[in-house]
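Section: Multi-chain targets

For targets with more than one molecule, the full set of components is provided together so that the structure can be written out for the assembly as a whole rather than chain by chain. Components appear in the order listed by the source. The example entry contains two components.
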Amino acid sequence: MIQLHNLSKHYRDCKAVDNISLQIPKGSIFGFLGMNGAGKTSTIKMMTGILRPTTGTVTIAGHCLAKEPSKAKAAIGYVPDRPYVYPKLSGREYLYFMCDLYNVAVKEVDTRIDSVLDEYGMAQYQHNLIESYSHGMKQRIAFCGALVHKPTVLIVDEPMVGLDPHGAKTLKSALKREANAGTTVFLSTHSLHVAEELADTIAILHKGKIIISGSFQEIQRMSQRGHEHLEEIFIELTSQASPYEMYAGGI
Amino acid sequence: MHLAYRSIRACAPLVSLPKVISLKNRFFRASTSLFGDWAVFAVTLILIAGFYLCSLHTLAEWQTSPVYQANIPLLVGTLVCAVGILVIISSAVTSIGSLLLSQDMELLLSAPIRTSKIVGGKLSEVALATSWMLLLFLVPPFIAVGNYWGAPSEYYALSIVFFVATVWFSAAIGMIIALLFCSIISAKTGRAILAVMFVGTLIVITILSNPGHDVGVFSLLSSTAHTSHIEMVKQYPYLPAVWIGRALRQLLNGSTSPILLIIAIIFLLNIALTTGLNWLYTKLYSRAYTHLQNSSSGEISLRLPRSFDRKLFFKWMSRPRFALITREFFSFSRDLTQTIQMGMLLSICILYLFNIGRLEYPSNVGVTMLQAWDVITVLLCFLLSSLITLSICSRFVFPSISLEGKTLWILQSSPLSSSEILRAKYLAWLVPTALIGMVIFMSGGFALGLPPIILLLLVVMGLIITRTLVALAIGMGTRFAFFEWEHPTQLATTVGNFLFLSSGVAIVGIQTSIAAMVFGAYYFLPELFNTPIHRSILFAFGIASLLVVHTFTAKVALRIGIRALDNLYE
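Its structure, encoded as tokens over all components, is:
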């Protein structure tokens, strides 16, 4: 469903993303981990068509992002790390806007909007301007906007930042539900317990390179030190100096 | 260079220091190429030189007419006052952004800084933001007047002091107006009041479009508005424009006392105003801030049209484009700062209509002079209407891409291409600007009492130039887009906007020259164009020429814009 092939992004002398390749199957949750500045957001921006890769290709739902951008982008629902949405629109108006932008069938628009608003507990605030929302509410309306056109791929960047425990729980259940319904979820996060709990496959990005990837159990086996939690494995792997000494063979 | 930076840093108010340091880092530590900045700098220098030469040329032309020559200082005085009024309005709008919406205010309010430092810093910020562009436009004519007159060195030194005093004065008044406005009126009621003002302005425009309106309840209004008419200025010795004009004349002749007196008065007023502003800030700031924030709570009353509305009226338009246009309209109409800017432009329209309506045929002149007068009035109407349309584009259309700000990711990750995004923006702004432009061109024509055929031609030409200016604004607004703004009002004072205004003036100049040929031929060669067919050929030629300029400008501007939007993906 998502295919990254030799993807790189260079900013002058800095290699933000260095030749990464991934293949993520339909209906799975993919946990994308890395320290600050590892290249996660650059990778996500290339996957959503916001940044053009220096080299490599991104294929979403069978459509190459460079050759068929409209078709590839139509299959994506994207929630960025900072959910800036139009402050002068109400929540419902924003969702109408997203439906029109993604050409959702007119007769389905209201049903879909009501459904996502209910799902994310935003129904009672739907007619208030977004500028009056709290951070968590903005995050939730951004999720509603990403899901209202029923994307086949959901790309989420740091979704747990600023959410209260209730919000975080609702979000985790929603992500599981989306994956069960067949949506491929690409989840970039610092919350290692969330990745451990939700992700079918995990990849750790370090200095622009994927240093390890696989299911949690596979990663545990590869780390060879018998760590119980992903946090310990992550710290061990990302503390080492060179990514070339890592478990690249496990990718 | 280092010494210059250190002295600027030492003089800059504490509140503005982060901006000074950011600017220094941009030029001395930037990792990106500075080629664009130097190119902009070079273009700006060329423009300043151009303004200077044009001013000098105009003054030399006026040398032949003793009436004009005698009135130059008065004209400069009136210009300074008119610009001062515009700076006050512009400062009021910028102050709302800088003082109440700026992102650094939370940090400043929570820091152990004295109120006077915040007020002083914001005052200098507003003064600089609203005056730098005027400085670039005004300095060349000021130097040209001095050069033409052979003015002493005191003229140049005192002009700088006078400019600083005037800008300080305008910024202080603007900030006081902003504080009072926002503390008395909440954003919601503010919109209603501004809507009433808008309707009232339309009524005034309708009355002023009719030259014989000095009767009844509007006579008081008319006589007040009379003061803004250059020809009438001399009759009002109490007007600041007259004082400045006289003082300027004496300064040009070597006597400094009158202008020193005026500068001293302005400085004293400035000290009083700044003290008053400081006091008002301590009393009203939290109230004004709360009022402005309250605009966002509660349900909204006007909602975005749903998809089925498109089916009824806009079936020809694609859904994403329709969605973008309606979103643009609703975001604009709910933004208080935009509404205030709209009020500011309406006041300029009133000023223009009043003055254009006052143009009268010169008496005791020959037929040729009357024909020339006809051409001059029509061209003046065309030129001034175009310049007002240009200022509308500069305030609203040019910043429209920058206004996407941090929400740009929504469009970038959507299935729309750069070209579709830009074309939707163009269409969204073309319709309202063309409507407003048409009202301005038509009411100017009505005020002059033009014959219907000329009025029609004027409106058609006006629509073409409006389209050109909107395309230019969208293209250049994208090329010089600034997404990291702190408040939307600062977008009208960027370097990119200055370049847009300068290019716009050049385009208006070209279009006016074409219009001059058409109207000149029509009025001066009546024997050649006395049949409807000949007239139609002449008008068709004029319109076709305007369309050629339009097509070229619009294509180039939109292509530059699309390329700039594409470059954001790199």
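Residues 165-180 of chain A form the longest helix (16 residues).
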